[in-house]
Specification:
Blueprint lengths: L6 E7 L4 E3 L9 H12 L3 H7 L3 E2 L6 E3 H10 L11 E7 H6 L10 E6 L6 E3 L3 E4 L2 H9 L4 E6 L3 H9 L3 E9 L7 E2 L7 E6 L2 E4 L2 E10 L2
Parallel strand pairs: 1-9, 1-10, 4-13, 5-6, 5-9, 6-8
Antiparallel strand pairs: 2-11, 3-12, 7-8, 10-14, 12-14, 13-14
The structure holds NADP nicotinamide-adenine-dinucleotide phosphate.
The site of NADP nicotinamide-adenine-dinucleotide phosphate has 29 residues, from strand 1, strand 2, strand 5, helix 4 and helix 6.
Length: about 220
């Protein structure tokens, strides 16, 4: 029997589970971008959760401005980095890859994987892997001892497939407390996922959001 390759989903969604508009993110939230970078790059997820004040089973009623969170993070000790030959992997659909500004791709410090049925599979110019399916990516990453954590990072088509996959164990959701015009949505993850941690509310340019962590199974 194949050994499961557990992975997490990382996503930001508004109150209607909107995630994208016209091939781009519907919002610009620096705090969410920083959270995404640290979560997907750092070897120790618990360190990232502590930094963002994620409390288990405890609702924090405070609201932090993005600036105050930045100041807090600025004063915190640096997050651990991977040693040579080890890193996390970030998987995304071809359309999400295309939506990244060229100067930001590949995402630094992470193995980048792009899912495409149309592009030829392989390693593209030493920058990113192209896989013909989510399962093909998971199979190959699962055999690579240097890959420590796998994050599925969108977009809508890939999230839908990832949520149906039995090895999807965690959802890191940026819960954006607003409604934006969207044409791409996150499917309902369903009751299999239970919320286990939440950050205080953050405020940035009038938009409120929190980071939430859901886990599948008992
Ligand atoms: N809010 C968030 O957290 C977040 C995160 C990421 C993206 N987004 C947004 O989501 C939107 C993009 O989402 P999307 O649903 O349009 O596109 P997508 O999921 O990023 O990419 C779709 C593409 O992935 C490939 N693909 C899909 N299923 C596949 C499979 N089973 N095997 C191999 N390849 C497969 C196909 O590429 P080919 O056409 O090349 O075959 C398909 O066209 C954008 O607006 C983006 O900004 C939001």
């Amino acid at each position: 029997m194949a050994v499961p390759t557990l992975f997490s989903l990382v996503v930001a969604a508004d109150t209607r589970r909107g995630i994208g508009m016209a091939g781009a993110l519907p919002w610009k939230l620096k705090g969410d971008m920083r959270w995404f970078k640290e979560l997907t790059t750092c070897p120790d997820t618990d360190e990232v959760l502590a930094r963002y004040l994620m409390n288990i089973g405890q609702q924090d009623k405070r609201t932090h401005s993005w600036e105050s969170l930045t100041a807090r993070i600025g004063g915190a000790r640096p997050l651990p980095e991977w040693g040579p030959g080890a890193r996390n992997a970030v998987l995304m659909g071809r359309k999400t890859w295309d939506s990244l500004p060229p100067r930001f791709r590949p995402l630094a410090g992470r193995l980048n994987g792009v899912l495409s049925r149309g592009l030829a599979p392989g390693v593209f110019q030493g920058s990113h892997h192209i896989w013909p399916s989510l399962q093909a990516a998971l199979d190959e990453l699962g055999r690579d001892p240097t890959v420590k954590n796998i994050f599925v990072a969108g977009g809508g088509e890939i999230y839908a497939q990832a949520l149906r996959h039995p090895d999807c164990r965690r959802i890191f959701l940026t819960d954006v407390d607003a409604q934006f015009p969207c044409d791409t949505f996150l499917p309902d993850p369903g009751p299999a996922f239970r919320e286990i941690a939440v950050s205080p509310r953050l405020e940035e340019a009038g938009t409120m959001y929190r980071f939430r962590l859901y886990q599948a199974g008992g």
